[in-house]
Amino acid sequence: MELKLEEEQQQLLKGSGAEKSKLVFLKKEWMRNKYVYLMLIPVLAYYFIFHYGPMYGLLMAFQKSYSPIKGILEGKWIGFDNFTMFFNSYYFWRIIKNTLILSFYSILFGFPAPIVLALLLNEVRKKWFKSTVQTISYMPHFISVVVVVGMLKTFSSLDGGLFNVIRSFFDLQPIMFLAEKDMFRPMYILSNIWQGAGWASIIFLAALSNIDPQLYEAAKMDGAGRWKQLLHITLPGIMPTVVIMLILRLGAVMNADFQKILLMQTAPTYETSDVISTFIYRSGILEGNYTYSTAIGLINGIINFSLLLMANAISKKVNSTSLW
Fold it and tell me: 211 near 69, Cβ under 8 Å?
């Protein structure tokens, strides 16, 4: 019994000693980096106010209606009726299909574009030419979506629009591109690539700059050409960055560019352009059905979060690269 009591006392002393050392460490850490921690306050406040605070409004997804005067908690609770209504909606399959198709094409064509651009720029030896191409490719990123859609409308106009001028060279009749449902997806995907590929290539160029040059020198001594260097050194070197960016992209599969789609969308293209975010906008803002649109938004968020977890788990198992 006495031995046990002594052991327990020693463990308590050890525990209290560890707590004291932690407190001392935290105190020293605060005194050393207090200004860095103070800089975190605006960031944390931003996420709390604009990201976590509004999550309280998700309660509306389980209510029949919302009244700004009565508040959220005074609404009539109806369980999962809003979700059931959405699953049985006439537009359900159309908006799910359009959202997935646009996201799939964006990943298929849009995700590799900045990687290819970065690999090509990495092979350029003339610095002035490389800088010029980088500057030109970055510029579209700084153009607002409104201006980009305005340019698309100008280029696709029947009266002297660039696209119809090109069609005339092949003896094709002019068409109204933004009123053709089959032209919406190509125009959306290609304009996104034009606007974002250059800017997104910065991340991959930074990853390329971190590859050890000695690896290339060793490969040259072994007789490896540029193609084999690309396959065995460059691509493996940037693969962790590519995987991380792909995981993040998969986490936003159901989030199409709402603003751009809404500006490009016309009534004849609803069949191919109507996605979850535009449907939420119509239901919530235009029709005032806040609870129904909140339920759709919640479904959208759950799907995105599930895909993010799934992609991260698969990546962690396959190549040990993951977000956490």
Answer: no
